[in-house]
Amino acid sequence: MKKLLLTTVALTALVAGPALAADLSRPVYKAAPPPPPPPVWSWTGCYIGGHIGGLWARKDWQDRDPLSVTFGSNDGSHEANGWLGGVQAGCDYQFAGGFVIGIAGDYAWADASGSHASILFPGFTNTTDIKSLASVTGRIGYGWDRFLGYVKGGVAWERDDFSYSNGVIIGTSSNTRNGWTVGIGGEYAFTNFLSGFIEYNYYDFGRRDLLFVDNTPGTFIYGIDERKSVLKAGLNFRFGGWGGPVSARY
Fold it and tell me: I need a surface site. Which of 23, 135, 158, 209 has the fewest CB within 10 A?
């Protein structure tokens, strides 16, 4: 019995050993890790840049001098068209769903002028020179990767010089006034640090009664109402440690 038992154990070891060793040495398959998600552009960050564009304004003049026999009467209107160029700065924040909110300020030097023949005072010419334009606006938009479409709105300021003349300048006035603005635009990020935009803005500065100082001497009061449109394009340098591509989240 002992010899039979030893023989059985030996035969079992000879048969099972190689199979067990083969099982132990066989490599275990492990799936390769998934590739990292592709980078996604984020509009979160700050920027500073410059812009140029065209300006189209309408100026409506009205006699507002209480001592004038034509008080309250319309004295005509004209277009004051030209160009502008300036700087802007702001910051944006992009939410996970793609919506973007931001705030920005801009200032532009302008060269836009126009004039018309006075209706109330024959022989006189009324003239406008637009010197500057500024605004502080908020914007909301949606980012499709590196393209951002947006609308904006806020408060605006402008600086104008006015005059009326009869061969020579008779009366002058300068005015800085505030109003409101709304706009729409699109911006595209060319690189991680540089983006370009095109936008249209509408401005309404309402009517202001302005005191003109004459060289006769004397004074006169005109009420001047203004609305203007601006189409501009510009570049932004983006910085602040927030912008640039970030990993997509799932």
Answer: 23
